[in-house]
Design brief:
317 residues, Alpha-Beta Plaits, 2 domains, six-stranded antiparallel sheet, four-stranded antiparallel sheet, 16 strands, binds zinc ion, CRISPR-assoc_Cas6_C
Length: 317
């Protein structure tokens, strides 16, 4: 099965490498919320020059990237066109000189703003982050190609940002990872970072296949609609989801994992739990594999923008 919009869906992946400054860095176990906060603040400084007190102008790049909205009412439901991928470990202290790797993915309309993102990441390091707001230097930025090899596109000792980096379409990603000659009837899905799947309004710790698929399809189609000037997909998803209910979850080795974060807006600690671990599915998976493969690139569930919901799939022929 192929949808034309897979051809138009665009992804670019990067790694930013920081060197920790002289004071060391103190970060919480869940680093997504730290980066969410400082990235948003730095981006606002870099990319918003709207007049104060009247909301954002239509041309505001900060608003497009960070407060994505088509109209005020939809604001909370629209996906942002980027994903930050902080180090996935619980290390809370980084000594001076240590490297910190921050992965980031740009999607569709955000890709053109790479220079602004790099400038924001540089500023973010200078302003400092974590407890005490200690600084870290943005040393180098790499572009990642489909095979996973990295190419340098920015270095601290040169002002140049290389504009020749890998951008791949959804179709290219799927073709790269899918061997069409083999029928796939088993796959294991690894939930690498806490994945917050909602079904019927509730978070679930039992990742039935159709729930995972619903989440991926919803995310990819709305990223396409909002960030690729795409059309709302009129496909009959109900039929796809119904078929997905035939796929059996034969082994679920997931556990609920609670991150805590402090919300400055709500002045309280918030739980950001999700499932981690792995789940194995059997059935005729052919129809769904393209979605799963692309799911690895866009994360799924709530708070995907800040690194939650990262998945890895292992296919069995
Ligand atoms: Zn603005």
């Amino acid at each position: 099965m192929s949808f034309t919009f897979f051809n138009e869906f665009k992804v670019a992946r990067f790694y930013a490498m920081y060197s920790v400054g002289e004071e060391g860095l103190y970060l919480p176990a869940y680093k997504g919320s730290t980066f969410r906060g400082v990235f948003g603040m730095a981006l606002k400084e870099v990319a918003c020059n709207c007049p104060k007190g009247s909301g954002h102008e239509p041309y505001c790049i900060y608003a497009y990237l960070f407060e994505t909205a088509l109209s005020n009412t939809e604001a909370n439901h629209l996906p942002r066109p980027f994903i930050l991928e902080p180090p996935n470990n619980e290390e809370e202290y980084y000594p001076p000189g240590e490297r910190i790797w921050l992965g980031f993915t740009l999607l569709g309309g955000a890709i053109q703003y790479l220079p602004i993102i790099i400038y924001t990441l540089k500023l973010l390091g200078e302003k400092g982050f974590g407890k005490g707001k200690h600084s870290a230097k943005l040393v180098q930025v790499f572009s990642l190609n489909l095979s996973g090899s990295m190419e340098s596109i920015y270095k601290i000792d040169s002002p140049t940002i290389c504009n020749h980096f890998s951008i791949y379409t959804g179709s290219e990603i799927i073709e790269h990872f899918l061997n069409k000659n083999h029928k796939i009837n088993q796959c294991t899905l690894h939930f690498v970072t806490p994945t917050r799947l909602k079904y019927n309004g509730q978070y679930t710790d039992y990742p039935e296949f159709h729930i995972v698929l619903r989440s991926i399809v919803r995310r990819i189609t709305s990223l396409y609609y909002v960030h690729h000037n795409g059309e709302k997909q009129s496909e009959n998803w109900a039929l796809l989801f119904e078929t997905a209910e035939n796929i059996k979850l034969i082994k679920s080795a997931v556990r609920w994992y609670d991150w805590e974060r402090y919300s400055n807006r709500q002045h309280q600690r918030m739980k950001m739990g999700g499932i981690v671990g792995q789940a194995t599915y059997v059935g005729d998976l052919q129809l769904f594999i393209p979605w799963l493969i692309l799911g690895e690139y866009v994360n799924l569930g709530k708070n995907a923008t800040f690194g939650l919901g990262k998945i890895k799939i292992i296919l069995k022929h």
